Amino acid sequence: MSKLVLRKMAQEHVYKVLFFLQSAAFIAFVINYSQKSDVVFAPVRQSPPVRQSPPATTAPRECKCIEATIRTAFDAAAVCKDVLESRGKISNCTLADINRRPGVVLLTTTNLAFLDVTLNMLESIKRTGVCVNTTVIAEDKKVFEQLRMRLDGDLAYRVLLTNSGEMDVIEHPRSHGSQYYGLMNKRQAYILALLQEGYEVLFSDADTFWFRDPFPFFEGDFDISLIDSVNPFGVRSGKSNFCAGFVYFKPTNASLQFVKAWVDALDSNKKKGRYTPDQNVMNGLLKSDKPVYVKIKPLDTNIFPYGPKFYDLLAKKANYSTVVMHAASIRGHEAKVTKFKSSDMWLVNKTTNEMLAEST
Ligand SMILES: *[C@@H]1O[C@H](CO)[C@@H](O)[C@H](O)[C@H]1NC(C)=O
Ligand SMILES: *[C@@H]1O[C@H](CO)[C@@H](O)[C@H](O)[C@H]1NC(C)=O
Ligand SMILES: *[C@@H]1O[C@H](CO)[C@@H](O)[C@H](O)[C@H]1NC(C)=O
Ligand SMILES: *[C@@H]1O[C@H](CO)[C@@H](O)[C@H](O)[C@H]1NC(C)=O
Ligand SMILES: *[C@@H]1O[C@H](CO)[C@@H](O)[C@H](O)[C@H]1NC(C)=O
């Protein structure tokens, strides 16, 4: 188990990002998927070799920096060296760092109730040194403003306001289907849109905590990669119960067809006034190979544990080097924050109310 070292805050660095501020951020709404079953311990796998990345973009000899807030697609040739090499205040990433992982997007969504949890995840990612083009979809205007205010100018992030209807700013219980699952069930369409643009997408709920770089685990021949809470690593069976909260999608034909069917099924339920848990629908499709067989790479739950398993391993002082933990099955904002704090994994100083007060 990695021991979390709480480091001193990043130096107060004020960046003057001149050209193109691709802002951003990301978040994931947090939701716990129930996964109680015990998983057979599997040996720790060696990380596969790190993906070969193309050389960093070099800045043009000469460029005209335009002071602008226009958000535009990345065009390395038009970006000045100082912009290319300046570090994002929250991500600690330069554009050159981000550009070393081309074609990959980290996606998360959030609402105001999970602003702090989302920022906690971003801070954990920063500490791993991972730099990835990140899209954070804000499900309400308040969280959108907060994220824009905090992440603007940091080139690792792109913060977008949802285009499929704003949601409530508060946390709702599961029993409030149209808000609770309503929120969850919007995410598949964002994933689909990115896949259709040809991106590989790592969707992460906002209640994850990153200890190490997960990307080396997404090597190999598969359509999607995710956690199966029932089966030991590497074995897929009819009993598999996959978790939809941390999933790597490759833009393959099978993934596209599967995610499209997932979106369609949720939409059609919604039209009938039903808010089916997205994860159940996903598992139903995967189990019946509908509309196509999807090649899955299951992740080892010893190193990609969900909440209870993570704390169980921690209590047993099990010697696993956690990559990413997902606070699934620890239900509700307060419970998640309390748990994170109990294991030195709460890295934000301010409550959401304090953050809101700052901006007024
Ligand atoms: C937390 O607060 C301390 C003390 O005010 C500050 O130095 C540090 O930067 C803060 N950490 C974060 C992650 O904001
Ligand atoms: C930011 O990244 C640089 C280069 O990797 C590293 O030297 C520095 O310690 C990092 N700063 C923080 C606050 O993580
Ligand atoms: C990041 O991904 C978005 C699509 O989500 C794309 O428009 C943008 O150009 C990418 N940025 C970089 C720096 O690659
Ligand atoms: C993927 O689908 C496209 C069009 O739907 C088809 O042309 C292509 O051959 C398919 N690729 C594979 C590997 O099945
Ligand atoms: C944990 O595993 C590492 C690497 O396999 C090993 O070097 C270390 O001694 C182990 N620690 C304990 C306490 O078993």
UniProtKB/TrEMBL annotation:
An annotated Gene Ontology molecular function: glycosyltransferase activity
Residues in Nucleotide-diphospho-sugar transferase domain copies: 133-339
GO cellular component entries: Golgi apparatus
InterPro entries tied to this protein: Nucl-diP-sugar_transferase, Nucleotide-diphossugar_trans, UDP-D-xylose:L-fucose_XylT
Family: Belongs to the glycosyltransferase 77 family.
Name by which UniProt lists this protein: Nucleotide-diphospho-sugar transferase domain-containing protein
Organism: Patiria miniata (Bat star)
